[in-house]
Amino acid sequence: MLFASSLIVCLWLGDVHLTTLQATIGKLVNAQTPNTVTLVNQGVESYKNGNFQDAIQSWQSALKLYQNSNNDNNVNVAIANENLARAYQQLGQTEAALSYWEKVIASYRAQKDSQKIGRILTEIAQAYSSLGQTKKAIGFLCDPSNAKNIEKLVCQQGSALQIADEQQDKEGKIAALGSLGEAYRLRGNYDIAIKYFEDAKNIDNKIYDFAILNSLGNAHASRAQLWNLRVKSAKKQNISQVSKFQINAKNDYQQALEYFQLSLKEAHEQDNKSGEMRSILNLIKLLYRSREINVIEPAKVDINIQQALELLDKLPDSVNKVYAAIDLANLSAVDDESTSPLTQCLAKPKLPEAQVKKLFNKAVTISQALQDSRSESYALGALGHFYECHHEYQSAWKLTSKAIWLADQKLKAKDSLYLWEWQAGRILEKQEKSPESLPFYERAYNILEQLRSDILIADRDFQFDFRDVIEPVYRQLAQLQLELASSSSPSNKQLSSPVLNAALTTINSLRLAEIQNYFGNDCILTAINNKNVTDVVEKDTAFISSIVLEDKTGVILILPNQERHLKWIDQNEKTLRQEITNFYTGLIRGKRDINYDPKYAANLYELIIRPFDEYLSSNKIKTLVFIQDSFLRNVPMAALYDKNDHKYLIQKYAIATTPSLQLTSAQKVNMQSSRALVLAVSHEAKIDDQLFEQLTSVSSEMKAIKQQFPNSKKLENEDFTIKNLEKEIQDKSYPIIHVATHAQFGIIPQDTFLITGNNDKLTINQLESLLRQTGKSSNLVELLALTACQTAVGDDRSTLGLAGVALQAGAKSAMASLWSVGDESTADLVAEFYSKLRESGISKAQALQAAQLKLINTKETGIDIQYNHPYYWAPFIIIGNWL
To answer: Is the distance from CB of 373 to CB of 412 less than 8 angstroms?
Structure first.
């Protein structure tokens, strides 16, 4: 469930700031005028009450008085700047906060006050974490390379944690450890985050217990979500780890529950009502999450909601109260499947409609009284969404428009601005004003393009909500653009309008966002190619891009002369998905059935390829490159069947796939003099109680590779270890890395791995790290071949991992399989593939086509006649650079 507060920077050390501010009063009593003391006190009280704008006004007035008294560099000026930085940080105006922090740290360095320098470095790190720059934050707190060693934490000289240790600053160390834990939590490194939070907790200091306990609760809650994702992945893979992952999820859920309850108790004992509210809201959020592990306790939910509602009336008006009211208003019934109340309409609201409306209006009223534009924008937007869901579009439009103006003109608050732009577009579209809605969708999309890297890399929790709060913006904009483009042109005629080009850009951006969301790191950013690949490829190559929508699917053909043709598949998502499942199931049956019925393969050909036959033929196309969407990524396109001329698609075209043209290199590489590194496991393997059968074709694969690449090196069975691989690629470059071992692709990267010779796992992230750390291999791996893959059947997120495998590992392209064949046919296919790849002028896609045709034509060549069944040749695909 996405709570309103999850979009607002709410630093765990916020309560510590209040103590620091209280301490500043005493230091400022000796200021030169009673006026300054009064102003500082007023600012502290406003800050404590959450009225940050008033606090800023008071402190800025005090600062001017100090500066006018010619004491520009004294301690009072430094403390005033320090307080202003914190207030701006609480308002989410991080850039303004950082400008004040720079002045503060310069003052303390001039005073050679090491302890304060260390503490300010921690607060600067928190500011960068809030901007999504968690790696930079870790650099201020410790050393990114050493900080991963959680048992032997050695920090660089001059970092916040090192200074705290040197100065024996207990409070500073707690703050640095807590901030370090928070940075790692945001990056999804929950184990490391929990270790640092526990280290902070073990330092005896009662004042900070509430904040630390709250952070520990958040970290365990996030890890519980991750375990639950792994449960889903294991179920898709049908492996034995399901029960183990379920136990881990429940354990983390229970730990989170205990920490939030302890945090609530500490806040209550300290009479910290704002802290109590935060803990109660976290408890409610956790209880809702527990639906995923089937331990939801409706009675506890009701008790906590009632506590929160009663506490809300006791809180002084503040920004935190505004967001608390919005969170409570947006609660759904425990059996409602809604996950994002700000972007979805609740099927079953938890509270009565009158009470919900009252809470929203209270949030608006308080934010306006505080003159806090950020929270006012959020409250107005949330209320606008309420009216949108109730089809009261006039009220919804008025409130949303004002929310946009406040977020855009006054604050540039992009993290919420995209929500309101998107909301405005939906409101107009529901009133059948599609052309008027387009600019709003476009602005929401443009904002997300600016924010995407920070959102998807820096906050792994946010990734859990990707399909609800980010992906729909791209899909709805693309649908609107395609519909507007096709409405102005007759069906199947050339479309070259700017709107269609914009739709292709939107679809491509969605591909980037999905891959980035799946891997959760910034590795793909280095691979982005801003050139238009379709402009520089061979004239006999065409591209087919798709986007799956709720009620239909758009398929776009891009020809070498840049003609665009759009075809709608008029089947809803559920119906088309079933077509794909039927097709896939028929292929898999080839393991036991000799005869193949191409009925479903022919159906898909009619839907996807037939509308473009005449264009492909007239343009003499030889290679098709697919940029597929959603469950269409599971389709082995080579096996589509043309019932008119009785040919598979691979018999007509060489075929490749790519996750995104923007991530594809169009450079042709000569593979004739290449060398290969072969990583192979032929014997039976057991990983996490899951048995992987013996791969009988491995020796034949290696023999074929050795024949084509005499200088190849192999690491086989027990010799294939992570340590040996690291040693081998340290000083040598291998343009081809061939992996002949089981490879599993799950719905999250943690369940995407290769099996090594010592019954160990080499995750795709570990492989990426190894290849990129060598300095040489990352730029020289042209082809990564994986011949025994296993994707989670029927799940399009697992094929995201397969689609991005080459990209993530630092290779320009991959030859991989959608399922593991594990037969001599694989060795035959591999031998022919590499043989053709050595020929001058043959592309990777054409080499694979030749290898697949050899199996199809087994009756003529004398190979096992069963190999012409698509089960044996269809799963092999070229991903990325097909040239």
So the answer is: no
Q: Which of 681, 602, 459, 368 is nearest to 6 (CA)?
A: 459
What are 642's strand-pairing partners?
Answer: 647
Q: Measure the CA–CA gap between 63 and 57, rounded to whole angstroms.
A: 10
Per-position DSSP letters for 754-801, written without gaps between them: EE-TTS-EEEHHHHHHHHHHTSSHHHH--EEEEEEEEE-TT-HHHHHH
Q: What is the dihedral of CA 77, 81, 84, 88, to 10 degrees?
A: 170
Residue 135 φ/ψ region, left for φ over 0, alpha for ψ in the -120 to 50 degree band, beta for the rest: alpha
Where are the strands (E) in 338-470, listed by range?
none
Which tokens hold the place of 744? 């599993």
Best CA proximity match to 314, nearest among 362, 358, 277, 270: 277
Q: What's the pLDDT tens digit per position in 256-279?
A: 999 999 999 999 998 989 889 999
DSSP assignment of 510-565 equals HHHHHHHHHH-SSGGGGG---S-HHHHS-TTEEEEEEEE-SS-EEEEEE-TT--EE
* 237 vs 121, more confident: 121
How far apart CA 572 and CA 653 sit, in angstroms, is 28
In the three-class reduction of DSSP (H, G, I as helix; E, B as strand; rest coil), residue 210 is classed as: helix
Give the position of tokens 């697992």.
798
Q: How many whole angstroms separate alpha carbon 121 and alpha carbon 162?
A: 11
pTM over cut 0.85: yes
Q: In angstroms, rounded to a whole number, what is the distance separating the alpha carbons of residues 60 and 66?
A: 10
Query: pLDDT band for position 17 (50/70/90)?
Result: very low
Q: Which residue has the higher pLDDT, 78 or 294?
A: 78
Q: What is the pLDDT of residue 691?
A: 85
Residue recorded with tokens 């980035």: 516
Within 13 Å, how many C-alpha atoms sit on residue 653's CB side?
28
Which amino acid belongs to residue 335? D
**Residue 494 burial by CB count (10 A; 0-12/13-18/19+): exposed, middle or buried?**
middle
Is 31 in contact with 76 (CB distance < 8 Å)?
yes
Bridge-partner residues for 678, per DSSP? Answer: 714, 738
818, two tokens: 């959608």
CA pair distance 703, 714, nearest whole angstrom: 11
Residue found by looking up tokens 């240790």 in the block = 165
Instruction: Judge contact between 125 and 138, C-beta under 8 A.
Output: yes
Strand-pair partners of 744: 753, 790
Q: Is the pLDDT of residue 525 over 90?
A: no
* Helix/strand/coil for 753: strand
Residue 530 has pLDDT above 80, yes or no: no
